[in-house]
Known about the structure:
Subcellular location: Bacterial microcompartment
Oligomer: single chain
Strand content: 5-15%
Shape: globular
CATH topology of one domain: Rossmann fold
Protein name: Ethanolamine ammonia-lyase small subunit
Number of strands: 6
Helix content: 40-55%
CATH architecture of one domain: 3-Layer(aba) Sandwich
Largest sheet: 6 strands, mixed
Enzyme class: lyase
Strand order of the largest sheet: 1-3-2-4-5-6
Organism: Aneurinibacillus migulanus
Structural class: alpha/beta
Pathway: Amine and polyamine degradation; ethanolamine degradation
Order of helices and strands: HHHHEHHHEHEHEEEHH
Amino acid sequence: MDQQLIETVTRLVMEKLKDAENGQSNPVTESKPKQEKRNYGSVKVWDHVGEERAPKSFVSQTASISEQSVRQSKPEDTKGKNPGVDKPRNKEQLAELMKQTPARIGIGRAGLRPKTDAWLSFRFDHAAAVDAVYGTVSEDILKRLNLFSVVTRVNNKQEYILRPDLGRRLGDEAKKTLKERCKHKPKVQIVVSDGLSSQAVEANVEDTYLALKQSLTALGIEMGTPFFVERGRVAVMDDIGEVLEPEVVVLLIGERPGLVSAESLSAYLCYKPRHGTVEADRMVISNIHAGGIPPVEAGAYLGNVVQKILRYEASGVSLVRKEQ
């Protein structure tokens, strides 16, 4: 995405979040005030407060940017898509249901088998999911983001799938590299990992990462030296915490691919992750991709979450309890 557009959207999302925070009231003593609509020009941002029904995802659109230069932030339009069922009892209702979800409903069958189009579509999406798991992240994107690489204790992709525990631990050489090249005890440590989808990193991590960096810079939050972990699992952030001792770790990692999207990215956050950290202490913003939460808005929002974690010195369930 264009750098100027990333900066614009990030700034507007941060303004929106700041307005929401300043406009919060005590729900016990007074009712929630009606928020004034603000005009953000040609860029629309996710309004998750002040509305009875919030949109399901962020929306980022700029009139001056062509569709080819900006990834679409909503699923492919299924309007006019014909149900595969030959004689549905209620054709209009089935068509309406199919527009509401990318799931495989109303595809019909030929005897006991799925129809050819549905079967080929399934095979195509399954192949894309397999490619996402077994693929690798290109060196080009790592160079653009200035990320050096370290490897977990996993030797290959097959072992990565069979031994999740090895993906949660850094190798000895990786730990040595981090000690030599990374800032020690930073406020925030950003880490990128391929996880179970290299395609998620290829498609979404650049916009997410740049927006997150801009958000943290605007908030005056110090960042450590970012890097890439090959064949990592979520809990590798515990090993990273032991080596670098950051206050917050943000891990951008590829999600397990499905038959709807093979390029969905997740952002895991944890306050002072160390060996023994339980899953309840982690928090995640998932479904970051073109058909879910657009990467730029997700990155901008992550900065706000990091600020909250630092303020309360907690994450996950502990953060929720302290906020109450």
